[in-house]
Amino acid sequence: MMRRRTALLAGCTSLVLALGATACGDSEPVSAGGGDKTLDGKTVTVAGVWSGSEQKNFQKVLDAFSAKTGAKTQFVSTGDNVSTVVGSKIEGGNAPDVVMVPQVGVLQQFAKEGWLTPLSATTEKSVDAGYAPVWKTYGSVDGSLYGLYFKAAHKSTVWYSPDALAQAGVQPPKTYDAMLEAGHTVSDSGLAAFSVAGQDGWTLTDWFENVYLSQAGPEKYDALAAHTLKWTDASVVEALTTLGKVFADDRLTAGGQKGALNTDFPGSVEKVFGPEPEAGMVYEGDFVAGVAKDQFGRTIGEDANFFPFPAVGTGVAPVVSGGDAAVVLKDGKNADAGMKLLEYLATPEAAAVWAEAGGFLSPNKKLDLASYGDDVTRATAKSLVEAGDSVRFDMSDQAPAAFGGTKGAGEWKILQDFLRDPSDPKATAARLERAAADAYKG
């Protein structure tokens, strides 16, 4: 989940800046070649969860937009509670022009509140030409395109220490069962197989989503995400049973169940790539690489690498994604200029700016993979783009926050309890259904 992961990597810090866009816009489009300074003297205010290195790298994109159009930009870090912060700004008459929305559910909420302006024909044309249709679907509400997915996450990657696997004499596995078998071999060599970040419930939802998408298939995944399929369905029980094979086996999990429940996401990466490794593998998204590199000095592709989350049973390997969608607020003081920013963000030129800076994946298939700075990032980006319409957005990010995005409640809490005691998948499925029914009703 991008918003929670971003906050964690930033140490849960946020910058509180004043919103202050005062200019008015016009309707001239921004061309990819640009440089005509048509927005000279105007300011575009952008709000989003990013802070730290992500905010710094996004600023490079905004600076490139400024150089092209003459517009000034102001970024406001909202912290985790995007909807609350943006709602209060709108009520106070001080709405930003553009918001980077980290969840499908929040984008839908904003659209249904009447806060958003449909994206321009120029942006929609770029999306149709450069993106798999699934990204347009996730950015649309009631047939209108409101969100442009600029930054994506590949959440079907298992990161490992090449030294740990080499010491155990195992190769990156191709199937889920082979992954558990390799994990036992790693355990026999002296390290736990997996470091699991059970203290952060969102990581457990990601585990479940990958298993479920591969095992149950995309149609049931979509139905469960929309809650047209109940969580008591046999497919959910089966996926929980499969996942429980990891959670119940102390040889597979660093510190056992108790250790996992006391490990947060950064700590889970440290247990594999830190100075005193405790495990050989950690499952999470492509953003693991940033922690391994920036916090623990690992060289990506050499002493930190990944393999795709493997296929479960007779299913195919899953590709679960998350992402940040740019939207334009109706009440922004310079919303027209904000729309020009989105026309720019839809181009491969804009994506290349952040790709070259690192810590970024784009769903735009027109972005040259050579723009990425290393082979591992190129591989994850290629996997994401080539998955096309088989990509499925993080299920919990599609759910109401009361079910899929609240610490100590809903899916997060129930899966933490399942990690603590995975002996009754059927009962866990029933708890999930009760929580989902209440949340979706609300």
From TrEMBL:
SUPFAM superfamilies: Periplasmic binding protein-like II (SSF53850). Residues 1-23 form the signal peptide. InterPro entries: Bact_solute-bd_prot1 (IPR050490), SBP (IPR006059). The keyword Signal applies. Keywords: Signal, Transport. Pfam families: SBP_bac_1. Belongs to the bacterial solute-binding protein 1 family. PANTHER family: ARABINOSE-BINDING PROTEIN-RELATED, OSMOPROTECTIVE COMPOUNDS-BINDING PROTEIN GGTB. This is Sugar ABC transporter substrate-binding protein. It comes from Streptomyces phaeofaciens.
